[in-house]
Amino acid sequence: MVAAVVAVLASCGAEKSKPVHAYDVADVRTDRGPVETRFPELGTLAEVTWIGSAWGSVPGRVDVPGPTDVRVVGVATLSPGDLDRLAGRYAWATCGVTPGNVPKPLVAAVGKSSTWCEDEALVRQVDADSSWSLLLDKARGVVYFDSTNM
Description:
Layout: H1 2-12, H2 22-25, H3 33-38, E1 45-54, E2 70-78, H4 80-89, E3 94-95, H5 107-110, E4 116-118, H6 120-126, E5 130-137, E6 142-149
Antiparallel strand pairs: 1-2, 2-6, 3-4, 4-5, 5-6
């Protein structure tokens, strides 16, 4: 009993480590094909930096088999024609939005733009079966996408 009390007291001051998410240690990819296939409305991308990972997975842990939600998050540079098309076709009325929950390996690619805008109609049109967001920085010609299939 004394050993149990000592163990409980010793753990009271122990600092809990923050969980590691798969997308924070995932390999950054630059291949355009998978992103262009998943989001054809974006057109042919000039450049893309992205991560794909199983949502909720933790490195080193074996998960129970079953359906897997996949998160795809990244930053893409649009071709000038696709930038003009997207900027002109949608309202992009909500500006000053900040990308949330950006995986650590993508922070530098996202940058510190203060001109991120979003258009809810485009989000609903592109992928109604997923939970996702799409932000556009018109000045840089860059989109930020974060999608989890549901």
